[in-house]
Amino acid sequence: MTTDRTKMKVNLRPLADRVVLRPMKETEQQRGGLFIPASVREKPQQGDVVAVGPGRYEKGVRVPMELSIGQTVLYDRYSGSEVTVNDKEYLIIEESTILAIVGE
Length: 104
Hints:
The protein is mainly β. The protein has one helix at 4-7, and strands at 18-23, 46-52, 56-58, 61-63, 72-75, 81-85, 88-94, 98-102. The protein has a domain at 13-25 and 38-88: GroES chaperonin (10 Kd Chaperonin, Protein Cpn10, Chain O, Roll). The protein has 1 helix and 8 strands; from the N terminus they run αββββββββ.
């Protein structure tokens, strides 16, 4: 079965311990089937991992990333840098600002 996640290909290659996320849209249904009215909606804090860097160096040894492409994660509200590539919005953040993996 192919999903949007497996079809998605991004032309970004993050460096070190950075991760490229596709933030969930505000209008998407949240887990549990609840919809949040636009008047009280905040920045999304959940997104899909579309690219991961090779990992950071610590004491001369590369520490591998714990994340992989296709996972859905929760991240700090005001973390990262928003970028637009080919009319699509992405968020580039450090792995340490990711709080949890959803659904695993």
